[in-house]
Amino acid sequence: MYAIVDISDKQFKVRDGETLYVPHQREAEADDLLTFERVLLVSDEDGDVTVGTPTVEDASVTARVTEHVKGDKVIVFKKKRRKRYRKKKGHRQQYTQIRVEDLAVNGASENGASENATPESGNTSDSGNAATAEADSEATDEARSD
């Protein structure tokens, strides 16, 4: 199972247990849990893909902050020839290293545990119409009696 999640206006493909570097999260400290609600796409083990419009409803990614690190140094060198003008500056971008702990869709985490313990009926339809659900259950009862 994987998900595409928007973290600080950048998109990341995440899997459970994966470690990745995201733009610096100022409010987070080491060993804090972060929950990202802007999940743009979710794919399960069967290959079924759910694309959000713009986000997937009731989907979240939970990650633990491992540490804050700096990236490699980037050298900025400016020069104007024959003018004796040279400027050299360096910059190290700050990142936050996180470890993805859970991908949850519709309250059910990837591990199979449900976050909210409300039992779901197996005979309900997607439309939520009670008459349609009752007709479906009657049709299955008739099919079983044959």
Summarize the structure.
By secondary structure, the protein is mainly β.
Q: Would you tell me the structural class of the helices and strands? A: mainly beta
Number of helices: 1
Report the β-strand fraction as a percent range.
over 45%
Radius of gyration: 24 Å
Q: Largest sheet, if any?
A: 5 strands, antiparallel
The helix content, as a percent range, equals 10-25%
| Unreliably modeled segments | 113-133
- The dominant shape is elongated
Distance between the termini: 40 Å
Please give the number of β-strands.
9
Average predicted local confidence, pLDDT: 82
Query: How many domains in all?
Result: 1
SSE order: EEEEEEEEEH
